[in-house]
Design goal:
By secondary structure, the chain is mainly α. It has one domain (3-219). The protein is 75% helix and 0% strand.
């Protein structure tokens, strides 16, 4: 795609979208290192979750992650509604899918946060309705979110409208890694080490938001000089 079209797309995109991607990426990135890191061997999924639920960092970390994901969802929905990508090959469809997946993943993150209320019920071997629903929901929403962001990062770089080839690397690797970990954690813990790759999604979002802001500035400068 010609550079002028790239700048035009940025100029047509609301600055709130750019700032939302940037801020969402910052929060999502900050929440990752705060997440409980206990990984005891030879325990069930629920017992592993109980240990993390009881960690004092559970609520703060997931609140920060939730804010980040909510900002990303709002930004992507606004990007789609603004139709600034309407004339860009493949981007409208990919952006819609990513917006929907992220918008669904945000409330799923809220469910993940409040599932910690089941900690005592897990310890007492009672039924755990919130956790049971949450783990099933996340095997769907996490892969959908991760893979759709990976696709958006790739196509956005290929069309030079959202990020670039360098920033697409963490977006694609992070999205695929996070998606694979989320899709398999109920059946195996072999890919759990991929969960932290979600940081790549955050890096891509920050870079994409920054890129839109810089391109908008370039477009404004070009308009004033014309």
């Amino acid at each position: 795609m010609p550079t002028v079209t790239t700048i035009e797309v940025a100029h047509r995109t609301s600055p709130l979208v750019a700032w939302g991607l940037l801020a969402g990426g910052v929060f999502f990135f900050a929440g990752g290192p705060m997440h409980p890191k206990q990984d005891p061997p030879n325990v069930t999924v629920k017992e592993h979750m109980r240990i993390m639920f009881e960690d004092p960092s559970w609520y703060p970390s997931h609140t920060v992650l939730l804010i980040g994901m909510a900002l990303l969802a709002l930004s992507l929905v606004a990007l789609v509604r603004g139709r600034s990508l309407a004339d860009v090959p493949r981007m409208p469809v990919v952006a819609v899918i990513a917006a929907i997946a992220t918008a669904v993943a945000a409330p799923a993150m809220l469910l993940h946060l409040v599932a910690a209320a089941d900690a005592d019920r897990i310890a007492a071997h009672h039924s755990t309705p919130i956790t049971d629903v949450q783990v099933i929901v996340e095997t769907i929403t996490v892969p959908a979110f991760g893979f759709s962001i990976a696709a958006l990062a790739f196509v956005g770089a290929a069309t030079r409208t959202l990020g670039n080839l360098v920033t697409a690397i963490p977006g694609v690797l992070g999205g695929v890694g996070y998606g694979l970990a989320g899709a398999t954690f109920l059946v195996t813990d072999k890919l759990d080490f991929l969960f932290p790759t979600a940081a790549g999604i955050a890096v891509w979002a920050m870079a994409a938001g920054t890129g839109l802001l810089l391109r908008r500035r370039a477009a404004s400068t070009a308009t004033r000089e014309a």
